[in-house]
Amino acid sequence: MLIPELANISVCMKDPERVRDTIVSMQKAGSNTLQVISDFDMTLTRFAYNGKRCPTCHNILDNSLLIDDECKKELKDLLNTYYPIEIDTSRPVEEKLPLMVEWWTRAHELLIEQRIRKDDLAKVVGQSEAKLREGYEFFFDHLHEHSIPLLIFSAGIGDILEEVVRQAGVFHSNVNVFSNYMDFDELGVLHGFKGELIHIYNKREGAMLNTGHFRELRARPNVLLLGDSLGDLSMADGVQDMENILKIGFLNDKVEDRRQHYLDSYDIVLVKDETLDVPNAVIRYLTGTK
């Protein structure tokens, strides 16, 4: 076995031979040709811990003392309405797009009404139950040690995401985040969000908007992509002159309904796996580390 962890019980592959060929090709090219592109919520962070759902970047705020009870109820209603649509594989993406925009836009409007202060964000993250996946230290540290760029595309809230990574002690210089960032007024109070809205199904547009960033990475035509939704598959669309891409997907929820769709889309599917063991093993192999 090229990588023993690919025999883990959580691992599913439609075409193991193709996976092997891709990994061998990427390893031969050398780690200086590699970049890692990843989603954040429920990809680099845990989906659940001890049987309880872990919060996303939005949830960290939604569940905090910065949000009043009425707003919490409205945000929960939005989640209950739109999350089933997001993960419904029977609906075409085109149909979901306007609904996702509706969800994110309304959620952001509600947060703006709460007049959140920038100074409170670090405390809120520290008090939350957000957890990076087991093995995160090796993942972030090893990529940094080998000067491998890590691009994080997130439909979450960039300020919260960065704080989670910073408080875990792994916000290294090789990490770049593309997300929804809060806009604070001169008193440090939230009064809007910067730039174009990034939601789960327009990460491709986010990738295309950042072609300047990808141009700097032209010498890195091999991509390791990590995601937990079918919308994450487009995150590498801005990569120029790509040679190889290995897509690893975390299937966290509604497993039987979505298994085949994930197997058809991702090279490696990790079913209810709360660790980064498999991505770390691939990175270890690609960097020639024992």
Question: Mind explaining what this structure looks like?
Answer:
- The structure is a single chain.
- The chain contains eleven helices and eleven strands.
- With 290 residues, it is an alpha/beta fold.
- The strands form three sheets. A seven-stranded mixed sheet has the order 1-11-10-9-2-5-6, with helices on both faces. A two-stranded antiparallel sheet has the order 3-4. Strands 7-8 form a two-stranded antiparallel sheet.
- The longest helix has 21 residues, at 93-113.
- It is globular, with a radius of gyration of 19 Å.
Short description:
The protein has helices spanning 16-29, 57-62, 69-86, 93-113, 121-127, 136-145, 158-167, 203-209, 211-216, 255-265, 277-286; strands at 11-12, 34-38, 48-49, 52-53, 150-157, 175-180, 182-184, 190-193, 222-227, 244-251, 268-271. The protein has 290 residues and is α/β, with parallel strands linked by helices.
Instruction: State the total count of DSSP E strands.
Output: 11
Distance between the termini: 15 Å
How many whole angstroms does the radius of gyration measure?
19 Å
Characterize the largest beta sheet: strand count, sense, and whether it forms a barrel.
7 strands, mixed
Report mean pLDDT, rounded to a whole number.
93
Instruction: Report the uncertain regions.
Output: none
Shape: globular
Helix content: 40-55%
Within the largest sheet, what's the order of strands? Answer: 1-11-10-9-2-5-6
Write out key terms for the chains shown.
7-stranded mixed β-sheet, 290 residues, alpha/beta
